[in-house]
Amino acid sequence: MPSDRFEKRPGAAEPRTTDLRHSKGDLWVLLAGLPAAGLLIGLAVPRLARWASDSPVLPWRDAVAFVGGLDAPWQTGVVMAAGLVVGLVLAFVAMAEAMRLRLTDEEVRVEQHDSTLVLRRADIAAVFRDGKHLVVLGRDSAELARGEHQAPAAALAEAFRAHGYPWRDADPHAALFRRWIPGTPDLPAEAHALLKAREAALKRDAPRDARDLAEAVREAGFAVRDEKGEQYVRPLVGE
After folding, report:
1. Directed axis angle between helix 34-52 and helix 61-68, to 10°?
2. Domain span at residue 230?
3. CATH code (residue 158)
4. Is residue 12 part of a domain?
5. Domain-terminating residue out of 36, 62, 96
6. Are residues 37 and 78 in the same domain?
7. In Å, what is the CA distance from 169 to each residue of 18, 105, 158, 199?
8. Is residue 163 part of a domain?
9. Is residue 173 over pLDDT 70?
10. Lowest mean pLDDT among 40-44, 47-51, 59-63, 128-132
11. Torsion angle, CA of 207/213/219/222, rounded to 10 degrees?
């Protein structure tokens, strides 16, 4: 997985801008390492298929036998090329999904999912790490931004605190989350309907729909997070 680092850019008197982004080493791992791994996997797959085809309990035997029969040089080249393409796709997806940040004393610029979001410091109530994710909460305790960021928590804390942002060691509202159970009376019917639709979006691997539905849940007065395949929900609480 890619890691990030932060660089401070000099201003008139002292550094006022901090970039949290991919390092050159991380980019080399993504753009060279993953495609190279794809090539090697493409080279190995026909051999593994031939080895596995002797198993008496092998599922999809016909498909495995077909792959194992790809032993001509041109066929091996096609499989390796497919592995290369898959590696490149994974590299670019990882780069697009990873959160990139630029901090100033006045705002946080978030680049993620091919879009840019600018958050004013005055609108931010808390910033913290949730596993591998960096989370920014607004004044109503709703998530303003969430995304995977591989920089160490200490480096993130240093960068945000240097610009005066309210860094927290953990989610200040974690105790309010409860696992969503359809039909429970503590949530209105509207929230249940949105969470059910979001559950379906997660099951069909539609992250954009899941994000849009999370925003709709927020507009209904609740925050939602995912943990081990389950949705957890809490009411929004203002400062």
Report:
1. 110
2. 174-235
3. 3.30.720
4. no
5. 96
6. yes
7. 20, 20, 12, 29
8. yes
9. yes
10. 59-63
11. -80
